Amino acid sequence: MTKPFEKPIYVTRPFLPPLAEFCQGLEEIWETAWLTNYGPLVQRFAEELRRFFETDNVCLFNNGTLALQIALQGMGISGEVITTPYTFVATTHVLYWNKIRPIFVDIEPDYYSLDPEKVEAAITPWTSAILAVHVYGYPCKLNRLADIARKHNLKLIYDAAHAFGVNVGGRSIAHFGDLSMFSFHATKLYHSIEGGLLTFKESGLKGVFDYLKNFGFNGETEVVMPGTNAKMNEIQALMGMQVLKHLPEIVSKREKITQLYRERLKRIPGIRLTPSLPADVRYNHGYMPIEVDSVEFGMSRDDLYEKLKDWNVFARRYFYPLICDYACYKNVSVADPLAVARQVTERILTLPIYDALPLDDVEAICDVIESLQCSRAKSFMDIGPGAETPSA
Ligand code: T4K
């Protein structure tokens, strides 16, 4: 490939339902003039999600961050929470807003989720919960984390922002741990423009979450707790329901993209792929992370990230830097050296993946990466759009 893509190729693009279908749904909203505050579409959407997750315990929110923030508040989590520094910053922000101290521990090198050994070593009398993240939708070490939580009487909370549609052993990943939060943000494979969902074990929490997301109102004149406003609106619910209908086709198109990337990239020196997932995991193909070994690849991750932009390809460094290295968390003391997380954050690059990304474009992106791999070839800096690229 010698010319850049004509249009930018972003890390993701939201799936959009057929416009006519969406407009038809909008007509219903126009007729009722009911836009938010538990309208009929939000209620219908919640019902669909109850069926999807096979549980009554679901609660919808206007975004994933507020859902998780309210989850911690409603569950009465306090003191210290053991969590990962390798995630999107919202995972830690929700602890901050609940005045909880984050205890950052290292991740495991295969799928980048919390290392259970490190979790257990970090427990103190002040620990109240583990907040783990299914990074890129790859399941955490579910059984080990559950054992540790049970043994030490801790709540096990999953930030499942990336994990909508992931199943383990034939069950939704939502059935693991005490509570899971799914993000329905436009950048996710499944979305409702913005949106968030909690699924949880203890039915009694539903009422508390409902109060907290609606100012604490119980009826018109009674406020039972100082809640906030985190309600999903009708247009979000409409989008959520319409995208849900297309989920199988979205996942299957993404799966083909993953397969092609893996097939092409596995032979490029210096590119590391995650190991194949265990047979009992049905993955959602939400992200396409690779690690770049600068010595073997002949170029650093950052240089590859920049070089791809010359071809109009906008990969992202999800997740760099580590949360504990952001200025606002620099004062949080971190006992764990975070050796794995520090290495991964310097090497990770998430490549474009979305249902509408043509396989030819995936081939072309792989051609570019391959052409840039220059451990033996001439200086990589000579290679750019328009230059002769070495043949594979
Ligand atoms: N926990 C975890 C582990 C998370 O990853 C997230 C969110 C949360 C919690 C919080 O959930 P929410 O409160 O968001 O529901 C994005 C998303 O904003 C964020 O939702 C997501 N994680 C995070 C990983 O990525 P940015 O700032 O990187 O997104 P942005 O705007 O740069 O978009 C990336 C690319 O997507 C763009 O280059 C083009 C494309 N795009 C984006 C949007 C918004 C579109 O094509 N259309 C669009 O409408 O954070």
Q: Can you describe this structure?
A:
The termini are close together. It is built from 13 helices and 17 strands. The chain is 36% helix and 15% strand. Residues 387-392 have low confidence and may be disordered. The chain is of the alpha/beta class and 392 residues long. It has helices at residues 19-32, 40-53, 64-75, 90-97, 116-121, 142-151, 205-213, 234-245, 247-265, 294-297, 301-310, 339-347, 359-372, and strands spanning 9-10, 58-61, 80-83, 101-104, 127-133, 155-159, 167-168, 171-172, 179-183, 196-200, 217-218, 222-223, 271-272, 281-282, 289-292, 313-314, 348-350. The protein is globular. The strands form five sheets. Strands 2-10-9-6-5-3-4 form a seven-stranded mixed beta sheet, sandwiched between helices. The protein has a three-stranded antiparallel beta sheet with strand order 8-7-14, with no helix packed on it. The protein binds ligand T4K. Residues 10-14, 63-65, 87-88, 90-91, 133, 159, 161-162, 183, 185-187, 196, 314, 318 line the site of ligand T4K.
